[in-house]
Amino acid sequence: MILSALLTSVGINLGLCFLFFTLYSILRKQPINVPVYSPRLFAERKTQQQNYFNLERLLPSPGWVKRAWQPSEDELLSISGLDVVVFMRMFVFCARVFTVASIIGVCVLLPINFLGNQLTDDISNLPTKSLESFSISNVNDGSNRLWIHFCAAYVFTGVVCYLLYYEYNHIALKRIAYFYSSKPQPHQFTILVRGIPNPAPSGRTFSQIVENFFTEYHPSTYLSHTVVRRTNKIRSLVNDAEKLYRRLGHLKSVNSHQTSKRDGCLGLFGRKVDLVDHYEKKLEDIEHNVRLEQSSFAGEEVPAAFVSFKSRFGAAIALHIQQGTNPTEWVTEKAPEPKDVYWPFFSASFIRKWICKIAAVVVCIALTILFLIPVVLVQGLANLDQLETYLPFLKGVLRLTFVSNLITGYLPSLILQMFLYVVPPIMKAISSMEGYISHSQIEKSACTKLLWFTVWNIFFANALSGSALYLVNVLLEPKKIPSLLAAALPAQATFFITYVVTSGWTSLSSEILRLIPLLCSYFTRLFAGKDDNADDFEVPCMPYHSEIPRVLFFALLGVTYFFLAPLILPFLLVYYCLGYIIYRNQFLNVYAPKFETGGKFWPIVHNSTIFFLVLMHIIAIGIFGLKKLPLASSLTVPLPFLTLLFNEYCRKRFLPIFKAYPTECLIKKDRENQNDPTMNEFLEKLSTAYQDPALMPVQYSRSDDGRSTPLLQPLDV
Amino acid sequence: MILSALLTSVGINLGLCFLFFTLYSILRKQPINVPVYSPRLFAERKTQQQNYFNLERLLPSPGWVKRAWQPSEDELLSISGLDVVVFMRMFVFCARVFTVASIIGVCVLLPINFLGNQLTDDISNLPTKSLESFSISNVNDGSNRLWIHFCAAYVFTGVVCYLLYYEYNHIALKRIAYFYSSKPQPHQFTILVRGIPNPAPSGRTFSQIVENFFTEYHPSTYLSHTVVRRTNKIRSLVNDAEKLYRRLGHLKSVNSHQTSKRDGCLGLFGRKVDLVDHYEKKLEDIEHNVRLEQSSFAGEEVPAAFVSFKSRFGAAIALHIQQGTNPTEWVTEKAPEPKDVYWPFFSASFIRKWICKIAAVVVCIALTILFLIPVVLVQGLANLDQLETYLPFLKGVLRLTFVSNLITGYLPSLILQMFLYVVPPIMKAISSMEGYISHSQIEKSACTKLLWFTVWNIFFANALSGSALYLVNVLLEPKKIPSLLAAALPAQATFFITYVVTSGWTSLSSEILRLIPLLCSYFTRLFAGKDDNADDFEVPCMPYHSEIPRVLFFALLGVTYFFLAPLILPFLLVYYCLGYIIYRNQFLNVYAPKFETGGKFWPIVHNSTIFFLVLMHIIAIGIFGLKKLPLASSLTVPLPFLTLLFNEYCRKRFLPIFKAYPTECLIKKDRENQNDPTMNEFLEKLSTAYQDPALMPVQYSRSDDGRSTPLLQPLDV
Known about the structure:
The structure is a homodimer of 717-residue chains. The first copy, chain A, is mainly alpha-helical. Chain A has helices at residues 3-27, 34-37, 39-43, 63-69, 73-80, 82-115, 146-181, 206-217, 232-259, 272-295, 312-320, 350-370, 372-381, 384-390, 395-398, 401-433, 439-464, 468-475, 481-488, 493-513, 515-528, 544-561, 568-589, 602-626, 630-636, 638-653, 655-659, 663-674, 679-686, and strands at residues 190-194, 222-229, 301-309, 331-334.
């Protein structure tokens, strides 16, 4: 690829981004789009009535940038919680790293690369220059200038480690401060106990066993417990009831729309009222079944219980010390927030859970390694010749140059992209089968899985461009990895630069435009004639498990290409600066937190950055060897070990803070609440906090519809 | 090697063993040898007076075998503690494993190997048959008989895993029972706190800081604390004093012997009395210095303290929950028994300790990998030609056939053995620099190090017989390991069989004969004219760190050669049966426990057995491949994974029990002691239990010598 082609591509994508931003700034001012662009405000009914039309609504304005930029970190913390702050710190951290990297890369390394003449000695015509001449490949073999690259690797590693330390420290302090400032919450006082011993020999229930055990061994702190019950059956019944209720509501609204003479696509047939009656009867039947199941439910206890304590420290004691003499019984873990509990998990026993976990790991590794095989097969089918064979009637169309270009040029990558879109839900499904007890843990686990998946299937598969089994073979010969990577990566630099510009920048602008929710909202309004209602409106939540790996993948590109092809760095810097503004805007307006882990996503960011650094060092060792500077190659060997030592230190220094709160904090918080008169009320509520929603009373039928006034209100611009 | 040669070697070694046992059974009956063969009884003065001479004393008798066999496991437990029981269980476990293995190996595999004709088709003359024809090498390539080996590998793995599970369970139960039956002990109520924050800003001492912290956060359970002080200087002074005192005592005894007209080698000069005076003055000076140092010691506190609690559960709470917000401060760990504390460790800070640990690991790995290089170099010097060059005056002697045979045949292995004898102390020294706080932890760590060292330098170095760096290269190409091992190991079978017979059996008989202590005792009596005295007599303690790796190494040989060369198995069975009797005898008579870890050595045995199994599987994969039975090779692949899964299950099921005691046990024990009237007294003593011995009052000079009546008493036979 030549420089001018890159600049063209950058220009086009920059133009697209501005177009998207302009569109966004207009669309978001339309009252009808409030549920799409400001669902948080819509759900909280904070949007003011402003139905009159004005010209300003049709003009793009940069006001949203200012509003996204303005709130301080503490304000963001109070609005959206610590997880959001941690997510934004990831952008701040990456922006800082790539600012430093850009300065070193563009001011020092780029000129040195450019002045080499390994590839060509013609420096006259800049625009037609191959991008390769900006990469390390252009430096002469054995040249002493490579020592500058060597120093740059050390300096860059030092800077990144310093920034990592700084961020880890900053977030750890924030986490402690967040805990100190928190109100008493059920999950602080509760633990989950699994593996309750079988009560059959003593003829008692699980509930009695738990009661006995904790009054025996934690007499002064034990408060209450809720034994978990097997509710799969009820849950499916309740789901059926909910579906029926929705359909019923829809039918009724169609009826009401007809009387008020509005268009309804489905409101043309005569059987409607009968249908409503029929559904209502069915709903009543189901509700009756649910109530029956709920009442006849004594025998269905699961050997797991949420046990609540009178103080946070009491819960911590039971959490941290092994309870029974058999370590597979009375297994304790922190309870998640009540709304964060993933209820379907509880049916599995210790052994079954453990086997599920192993199976999940195996499936995940197999999926990661073998993912490319089906993709390549399907892409093979998309070849022109094969298409013509299978679908002969397309022959005429396929012979057109434009169509054939489109198919050969875009179809393969389109298929890859489509497959990639399927992966995050699959990973989440695998994680949820692993027996995690909360949505947050599932997302965290899926996040790690997806990160490895991305690194393997986008980075390694593209860089080494071999079959999956060839890649596995490479891993089995660790000695060859540095030279293999060093030989393959510089050639892929241009591909990854365009990847940042096209995939990275575009993903940001499509994130802010929310094209799919926008279209969905139009289509539902158009076809179903359904108005949005703030009551049963669900605010979307941030899919951390797919977003964090995507953002970190660009950091991987930046870190590994830092001294191979520094040209990539300014584009990354732009990506992170843009991302900072855009995600801030989204958190303030769109996404509501579904759970609060207290910043537990940060260790993933930290660990993967360390991995990227070590990968960079391995590549450096390989490339100095290829460039015939063996001394530099050997002198780089300590660098990964030093980095891993640094990581080990950070693990000791910070990781425990992210695992549990220390005695000091717990007791201080407990003392603070001791004289609080509202504590008694809170402790009373605690015993019912962890109630399975499937066991809540159900009442859908004959309920008041009450949807007469649609709540669409325009946003103040 | 042919069969008859092996039988000769076995015969010779068997004869040697019986000779040693006969010698032992005579020597142990001599009253003068009581301190060598029954130091435990000697120290406890349990040996009865029996000075009259009888003929029985000169006749060998097998009574000691019966006495060693008789005590039950519970009796052994009460006499010597749980660690000894665990050590003996290792022999029981190995004996069981190799009984099963011998039955399968000798009855099934050996005939199959022998009936093959890959190596030779002459089965007429048994005694001149090569030992190779009993190994798997003799089975024809691609023969279906190899499936029997395949089945044997599965069956053997199953049996070993079952036995492992059984033993782990047995020892875990024993450990809990041992805790329940124990009296209140200081280390159950105490934790060690390191990384006490710097008190300088507040102007307080470490002691005050500790007091404040624990009265603040553990008000109901905190009892007292002892801040550790830097005592290196005092300790060296006390050591000096002790040496002087011994020399003085020796001088005085020489004097007294002279007056009582007994021979003394050194008692012939006139300056003695002056010397005594001189030494006594010097001793007084040193003692004065010690007292000065002890009193002027306020400023030398170390940021570490032993903190005692009123209950075991109280100590466990402080132990298991992170205390301060900074995880590198207030680091807690279990306190060792007071006599087990390794006092010199305390001077290091968190960071320094951590760096020491990393350095120790690096040194240890380097020593393990590069050990063979100096050995080979020194062995090279032992070549005849080089010896002649360096020491020309030996030329005449070296030309004698006998001498040259000796030097070329035995010197290299002698040098290797001598180097090997130096390794256990070196490993222990490395471990003690790692910052462990107790002798038991140091021995445990040294034990693991030595185990890897032995596996690497005896097993791999002999099997693959290449240079150290070649071996490291092998490790870097993991794909080749199975076939390399499979090709190399069968050839080494005869070497390892003779190794078991010579090194294994001989080490046992020399263990029981205690040749070096015997000679030492004779020489000190002969030259120093010193009588043993039960007062300052030190009972030897078991060097677990060198014995466990040695015993386990033979298990490694047995497991890996189980289906390669089953001929090794009966010899191993003999080794373990002999070892069982001999070590029982030693524990009852010779070794006194220096510390009690409560069976914490067992996980080492378990983990290494798992490693041996996996190694066996890897070899099996390789050998089935070499023998052209690729299907068996592929079907063996799941076996290591299943074994590792089994290990993972055991880790979850049993390991936590070996790390700490659960709430259930702690609270039961605490309740038991609640109404005990002696507890108050015990708790009072607790506050001074962890006093550095260097800070104890010193009084050597002018002390009463009181050694007039030597306490040599003959043993009842």
